[in-house]
Write a structure and sequence with these properties.
Largest sheet of chain A: 4 strands, antiparallel
Oligomer: homodimer
Number of helices of chain A: 8
Helix content of chain A: 25-40%
Structural class of chain A: alpha+beta
Shape of chain A: globular
Largest interface: A-B, 47 and 47 residues
Strand order of the largest sheet of chain A: 1-8-3-6
Radius of gyration of chain A: 19 Å
Distance between the termini of chain A: 39 Å
Order of helices and strands of chain A: HHEEEEEEEEHHHEHHEEH
DNA sequence: GCGCGGCCTTGACTCAGGTCAAGGTGTTCT
DNA sequence: AGAACACCTTGACCTGAGTCAAGGCCGCGC
């Protein structure tokens, strides 16, 4: 195991380190999200050894593009990414937002080709996990194999949540649900569950939720009028979580 | 490899055999769909040995229910199933239809709990694949491990297709897309791509596509008037595949 | 054969959210 | 500092799909 360099241990997501990438899985403060399994530290070292950390992605840079050859899955170390598909007639469908600790790119496994594109919404640091090595390691480490099955299964259940949301819920409910989802994911990372900055634009939100920008904007205004949210451009404060949950009208 | 028994080799999906379950993966005519990998025949035998075939499910019987403990994934041998989630306020969201050769239940892996329910739309024969055994076998058989990663990844990309459909497409486009999807899946099983019987009700179709029954019905009428489809209750004939594709306005 | 219940279709009306248009605000580049 | 641009908000209007209501069709049990 490489010894962690002085300043990098808790570097975390806020100021991506541009001069050194000596983070490792053992000292990464996201590993409880990214690797929820109680891996043996030997195992962590093995996993660590296949992971590649390159220099951060700038805002709007692509991590991969639809129809690129699939080589790796990726873990977000800092920043945020959006995944999206382009439809035949050129429109975009945002299929997900990825926050630190979350894994993306798994939709490329089935065809050896990425089924969506992924683009940084802000400067973002990424861990690249070459899939071939991951497969080999998984065969040798049942707990890792299981972990990846679980990760993929979670992606499926989350997509199904979104399907239900799109198919059954009103604009208010959709936006409320997204705010709650971001809140929960923030809390998992030990950040505020009630105050945060949205990394994505209103267009992206609308696109993800199957709404127009105008509608998203009107919903925010409405929620603000009802004192459920304070909205200042991208800064969000949840004033009344219970009402927000009521408005979302869904599980989570 | 065991020699196929006299009558069971091509038993197929039409008349599920209620008196004998001596089908095996080696002689199953769906194995090119279900196991697209060129497995060694030794490997197939091993896989075959962990698969359990029980008696067929009758119409409306559940294969599993939301929040049941997750034990197995399932392959459809004959018949059709629908998977659905029940929302907090008691409404249903159909998340998928499963035809012979297709695998369901993978959404249960992440929590050891099924995230949806699965119910037979008609009498259906099922192969049960206990997940623990599958995991063990996967560790020993890299090609099987890869195959399951791919299957799960395919489920993800299909869900993302549906997300896009729900979020961006009109009622006409949604129904057209579903008809094409069923047509393609029929063709894979060497059945007619242009004539088939819908195993699901209009309610289920509407529910799956985020539409009301009335709208689904109106779309069918419209397509019939345009001579794209012939619709006689559940019997569908595609008269003009190109127009249907035009109407669907999507990739597949 | 008849009556009942489930499923499907059609019509008339309503409304949530889309579209179009205008103006505001914040950020970046020179 | 100022211009240019990207992004956000609000209003007025329109429309596709939902709702409500009625009637038809088909299969099943008696």
């Amino acid at each position: 195991m490489t010894a962690p360099l002085a300043n990098d241990g808790d570097q975390g997501e806020l100021q991506p380190c541009t001069h050194s990438y000596q983070v490792n899985c053992g000292n990464c403060r996201l590993n409880s999200i990214c690797l929820p399994l109680a891996l043996e530290s030997d195992d962590i070292d093995q996993l660590d050894s296949i992971i590649q950390r390159s220099k951060p992605l700038q805002k709007n840079q692509h991590l991969y593009r639809e129809s690129d050859e699939f080589q790796s899955v990726y873990a977000v170390r800092s920043g945020t990414l959006k995944a999206y598909k382009t439809t035949d007639d050129g429109r975009e469908q945002v299929t997900g937002f990825y926050f630190p600790g979350e894994i993306l790119g798994m939709d490329g496994i089935s065809n050896n080709t990425h089924a969506s594109s992924a683009k940084a919404l802000e400067t973002s640091a990424i861990c690249e996990i070459p899939f071939n090595s991951l497969e080999q390691l998984s065969s040798a480490m049942p707990s890792l194999q299981r972990h990846f099955f679980q990760l993929m299964s979670r992606e499926i259940t989350e997509d199904q949540q979104l399907i239900t949301l799109l198919s059954k819920n009103s604009a208010d409910e959709r936006v409320a649900a997204l705010m709650l989802s971001i809140s929960t994911r923030n809390a998992r990372r030990k950040l505020s569950a009630t105050q945060f900055r949205l990394p994505m634009s209103r267009v992206d939100i609308g696109n993800y939720l199957g709404l127009t920008v105008e509608t998203v904007s009107r919903v925010f205004s409405r929620m603000q009028k009802l004192h459920i949210l304070r909205v200042d451009n991208k800064e969000i404060e949840i004033l009344d979580t219970d009402s927000l949950k009521g408005m979302a009208n869904i599980g989570e």
